[in-house]
UniProtKB/TrEMBL annotation:
The keyword Nucleotide-binding does not apply. Keywords: Membrane, Transmembrane, Transmembrane helix. It comes from the Eukaryota. It comes from Nicotiana tabacum. This is Uncharacterized protein LOC107782229 isoform X2. The chain crosses the membrane at residues 44-63, 83-100, 121-142, 231-252, 261-281, 293-314, 335-354, 382-400. The keyword Transmembrane helix applies.
């Protein structure tokens, strides 16, 4: 049966933090705000707290080194940031904006193409403010020299204090960008992600883009942690959420297929082209770790085009049954994320092994059925993800849907 996470009215009436939020948006006389907005904001805050809880549990460090069957976390090194925490922040900000700025709006838009931007202008005002804050901080923050203690026990430099030279402003390189500097100042370097993607770069690793032994001439920052879901990059992610909500506004207000697709495709292409231009002119390079504006444009534009393609296939060509597995996964997205992306299911299966933690069912299937047959780590891993991860969890989600079981926040 579906579990309803919605608050009862009695619980909602006791939310003082929600009242504080309403005071900010509605003024001292916030009692004039509608009861519906009050209830909605309280539900948003409750859902945000749930996302933060699961984010800390899954990515705070409690479940780690699944192949070595280790769990538990040293509170001196807990990771405060993560994917769900970023989603929680973006969701909280955009949802409150959507609720508090919502006015009586026409269900169908006039023929003017830009009218939808006008009726939701507050979202774009906030989005512009977010972009200004992000760019000003990224390019305006002075990053001094910093040091860290090498925590990798396999390194010959374990326990040594290494100093990274910066003394720059507006640098986007791995060691000296404002994103990492702010996270180090706020959270402390011990609470950042210890295995960032930059450690697999050509400058660091001999087997790049795979993890492995560091090069003899690897720069010092290769040994340091970095938070890819930190404060400043998560602020930039709010802009992606604003764009996504806008695509939803189009779906609600524009009733015919042509108008919807025209809006999505035009905006998607515009964002994609803008992001590519910013990157190749070196104005703002594409960088997922920093969540740069060009990265926001490219990913949002690509998402609009992919969404348009699915809309054509499902809503226009009526190929619904072909994509039912994706629908099932979407109905139980939290379950699939926790069990698959969070590695909980794999960790449970890996707990049953023969003589060595690597002699598990998952390891055997990946090595002998997928990688061994194709004699390629890349192709084998891709096929493993498609068939042993995505398809498997699509079937599981389909069975749960048939039973009416859903995990909702």
């Amino acid at each position: 049966m579906a579990y309803d996470w919605a608050c009862t009215m009695e619980r909602l009436q006791s939310c003082r933090f929600c009242d504080a939020i309403l005071s900010v948006y509605c003024g001292n006389g916030h009692s004039t705000c509608s009861q519906e907005k009050l209830v909605a904001i309280r539900k948003v805050i409750l859902r945000t707290l749930k996302l933060l809880f699961w984010g800390l549990l899954l990515q705070g460090g409690y479940f780690h080194d699944l192949d070595k069957l280790k769990y538990g976390v040293d509170m001196n090194r807990i990771r405060w940031c993560g994917i769900l925490q970023r989603i929680a922040l973006a969701y909280l900000v955009v949802a409150i904006i959507e609720i508090t700025t919502r006015q009586a709006q026409p269900k169908e838009l006039p023929t003017r193409w830009f009218f939808i931007f006008k009726i939701y202008y507050w979202q774009w005002v906030i989005g512009a403010c977010v972009l200004i804050i992000y760019l000003a901080t990224l390019y305006g923050t002075y990053v001094p020299d910093w040091h860290f203690v090498v925590q990798n026990r396999d390194s010959v430099d374990f326990g040594k204090i290494l100093t990274v030279t910066c003394n720059v402003r507006g640098n986007l390189d791995p060691p000296c960008n404002a994103v990492g500097y702010i996270d180090r100042q706020v959270f402390g370097i011990n609470h950042l992600y210890p295995r960032p993607a930059w450690k697999r770069s050509k400058a660091c690793t001999k087997n790049s883009p795979y993890a492995g032994t560091f090069r003899d001439d690897a720069p010092l920052w290769c040994f340091a942690p970095f938070e890819p879901e930190g404060i400043l990059s998560s602020i930039s992610a709010i802009l992606s959420t604003v764009v996504g909500v806008h695509f939803g506004h189009v779906l609600i207000h524009m009733k015919d297929h042509t108008s919807r697709l025209l809006h999505w495709v035009v905006m998607g292409v515009a964002l994609l082209v803008l992001g590519i231009i910013l990157h190749f002119t070196d104005a703002i390079p594409l960088n997922k770790q920093l969540y740069t504006f060009s990265y926001v444009c490219v990913t949002s534009g690509a998402a609009a085009l992919v969404f348009s393609a699915f809309y054509i296939l499902v809503d226009i060509l009526n190929l619904k049954y072909v994509f039912l597995p994706l629908e099932w996964i979407g109905m139980n997205a939290m379950l699939v994320y926790v069990m698959a992306a969070g590695g909980i299911f794999a960790g449970f299966i890996n707990g049953w092994y023969y003589e060595d933690p690597h002699n598990t069912l998952i390891y055997w299937i990946k090595k002998h059925i997928f990688i061994g047959v194709w004699h390629s780590t890349r192709v084998g891993t891709l096929l493993y993800v498609i068939f042993a991860e995505i398809l498997f969890w699509a079937i599981v989600a389909g069975l749960l849907h048939r039973l009416g079981i859903y995990w909702k926040l």
